[in-house]
Design brief:
The chain is α/β, with parallel strands linked by helices and 248 residues long. Helices cover 31% and strands 21% of the residues. It is built from eight helices and eleven strands. Strand 5 and strand 6 form a beta hairpin. The longest helix is centred in the C-terminal third of the chain and has 15 residues. The radius of gyration is 19 Å and the shape is elongated.
């Protein structure tokens, strides 16, 4: 008798999420009949204990539990520890190990966007969890960066003058600004100082081309949205669940 492996996604709310549809399609296309993937909307993080008791093999973690889940884990990868967030959990013999596959997806996306170009300075818009993943990746890539926020602890948006923008050839938006249905909003940067020497990455993937990316593209910048990052982090999670012990 085939043992069915159980995977899923925790978070709250989960009215729409990428992962269940993605893995359903993956299982269908690859004739994987011994695995299931379901959504588990948990109203509070402590409910994860009941889920674990159901002999689940692993799960993804989304908002608002990427940081809270760490308290329930036995082990954590170096990347997840550095970022302070976990989005993938693997369970083997009752041992819960946390990983951050967003880092893998983001790094792949930035390398693809740069396409061999050398960038020395970057701006990261936002200071939340996604920003921490971007900081980790740029540290690994040896790219210096400044954080941009409305918080005066960091570089503020009104301090983004021509000099800063010309120096910063890579700009990463880690804020949710511009996400559907709020498609008419975007980070308040001086787009007029962008040109064809800039690379602009937006973690937003819905819509496919945010107002942020549209304005950057209109100035000649190379652009990329967050969809490839989403695919790559999901594939990395699958690799982790399937015995890639060195992943994440």
């Amino acid at each position: 008798m085939i043992r069915i492996r159980k995977y899923g996604l925790i978070g709250y709310p989960l009215s729409y999420s990428f992962s269940p549809a993605y893995f359903a399609e993956k299982f269908k296309n690859n004739a994987i009949v011994d695995a299931t993937y379901e959504s588990y909307p948990l109203e509070q993080i402590s409910d994860v204990e009941k889920l674990i008791e159901q002999n689940i093999d692993g799960f993804n973690v989304t908002i608002p539990y990427k940081e809270q889940i760490i308290a329930y884990l036995d082990e954590i990868s170096d990347a997840a520890r550095a970022v302070g967030a976990v989005n993938t959990v693997k369970i083997v013999d009752g041992i819960l190990t946390g990983y951050n596959t967003d880092v893998y997806g983001l790094e792949n996306s930035i390398y693809a966007l740069l396409n061999g170009s050398c960038v020395e300075h970057a701006l990261i818009l936002g200071t939340g969890g996604a920003s921490k993943a971007a900081q980790y990746v740029l540290d690994r890539m040896g790219i210096e960066y400044k954080l941009v926020s409305r918080n005066h602890k960091y570089l503020t948006y009104d301090q983004l003058d021509e000099t800063v923008m010309i120096q910063s050839k890579l700009i990463i938006n880690t804020t949710p600004l511009g996400t559907s249905p709020d498609i008419d909003s975007c980070p308040n940067i001086p787009y007029q100082f962008l040109d064809d020497s800039h690379f602009v990455f937006d973690l937003v993937y819905n819509p496919e081309k945010s107002l942020f990316l549209t304005q950057a593209e209109n100035q000649g910048a190379s652009i990329l949205n967050g969809l490839s990052m989403l695919y790559d982090q999901a594939e990395k999670a699958w690799d982790i669940w399937n015995e890639d012990e060195n992943a994440g």
